[in-house]
Structure prediction request, 299 residues.
Amino acid sequence: MTLKQLEAFYWAATCKNFAVAASRLNISVSSLSKRIGELEAAIGAALFNRDSRSAVLTPLGDRLLTHARDVLHSAEQFMRRANDARALSGRCRFGVGELTSLTWMPRLIALIQGAHPNLVVEPHASMGQVLETRLENGELDFAIIAGPSTRTAIASHGLGQVQFVWVAAPTLYGDTPPRHAQQVAERTLITLPNSAGTVRILDEWLTEHQVSVGRRMTCENLGAVAGMLKEGLGVGFLPRAWAAALIQRGHLAALPELPPLRPLAYTFQWRRDDTRPMVRQLRALAAQAADFDSPPCLL
Prediction:
């Protein structure tokens, strides 16, 4: 029995499928299956039931999974002490939300490549719920999204908060900007979709002020949301730095008399069972790079 065989067994059992597990270990599916087969031969019993369309753990495999995790954790602790001062290599896949991708993600990648030039970085930008699912399935090594996560398999570490402000095109309200929450409901509300982290603070705001939105227009792209607001298609909210840049150019007007939204916390998230030194080191770099008040890199 080898650590590589245990790794193959553990990640095959905890990832979405064998293909995801193989990708995480940077090996082919056939190599993954071979390692699992060698482990089963050493044990003298099957760990996966391959009679169904997808491989599922046998009762023995289910009982041994926790022990495999403990052995791998001990090995990770040993390697952490041996490799703390060494640069990382291999491949890292991580996910970020729309706001992070358009502000400080490039700085994070620059820091990672400066500290670990042999580490191949693959960033993915999407909605928070999508990234959480991919993270839990083992398709991502970490994610930076609104949090903390409510999923028990995912751990969260705070990186900062984002303050959003209400805005609209200068022509939408003219000289009579709205003062009450109900006046927002009378216009089209333009926001990111429900799968985005901002839905948390929006729902809280609507509930607190007992407002029901009559018409809502959503888009997964924050830049497109800002563009629709600029065209006067409705009212909405943007990160403070985005809003300030567009207000300064005369594209948008602030709506300061509306009740404010609460700040939205963002976190570095990873699987609780992932104790690799890479995750810990990149979490430290993310904390160093995080700047949610920076203006969008496209402006």
Remarks:
- The two ends are 55 Å apart (CA to CA).
- DSSP finds 13 helices and twelve strands in the chain.
- Residues 59-83 form the longest helix (25 residues).
